[in-house]
Specification:
- Helix 1 packs across helix 2.
- 28% of the residues lie in helices and 21% in strands.
- Strands 3-2-4-1-5-6 form a six-stranded mixed beta sheet, with helices on both faces.
- With 160 residues, it is α/β, with parallel strands linked by helices.
- It is globular, with a radius of gyration of 14 Å.
- The mean pLDDT is 95.
- The two termini are 29 Å apart.
Length: 160
């Protein structure tokens, strides 16, 4: 059994003219991220593998979640490859996860996350919003062989 949690970065700021990869978070984004993180504490395995896009907004989001979950942010692996908006690229990255990893928590971007959730989960989601959290379980021994899974948790800031 493999458990994947996908978290979209918190609401980012467009106030300062910086490259997309360098955008920070808005105060509302921070508030919503902490709200969702607090609602998901019981769903997190401390032994999970944590992967995160290298963009500033996903790094900041991951740090907020890890702090709320009382986990060491040094456990996060930042991957340039996760700075993607493409579902197929996200799928390749997830399928590359080592077989000994049972729980993968991934912080990333849309539309890759929404498209992935709809391709591999069994519940349709119109859009995973910023700070959105979706968990999918796969009945398979290897990430490389994931197919349709079971969507267990969908937690969005507007619903809490």
């Amino acid at each position: 059994m493999k458990k994947l949690i996908l978290i979209r970065h918190a609401k980012s700021s467009w106030d300062i003219p910086v490259p997309d990869k360098d955008r920070g978070l808005t105060s509302k984004g921070i508030t919503n991220a902490l709200k969702v993180a607090d609602k998901t504490i019981a769903l997190i395995s401390p032994s999970a593998t944590f992967w995160c896009s290298s963009s500033k907004r996903t790094r900041l989001t991951a740090n907020l979640f890890m702090g709320c979950w009382n986990l060491d942010a040094n456990e996060i692996v930042f991957l340039d490859e996760l700075y993607t908006f493409d579902c197929l690229q996200l799928e390749e990255i997830v399928k590359s996860c080592p077989i000994d990893c049972e729980n993968l928590i991934l912080f990333g971007h849309n539309s890759a996350i929404t498209d992935f959730v709809n391709k591999f989960g069994n519940k349709f989601v119109t859009n995973v919003p910023t700070s959105g959290f979706v968990s999918i379980n796969f009945d398979t021994p290897s990430w490389a062989t994931i197919t349709k899974g079971i969507t267990h948790n969908i937690i969005f800031p507007s619903e809490n």
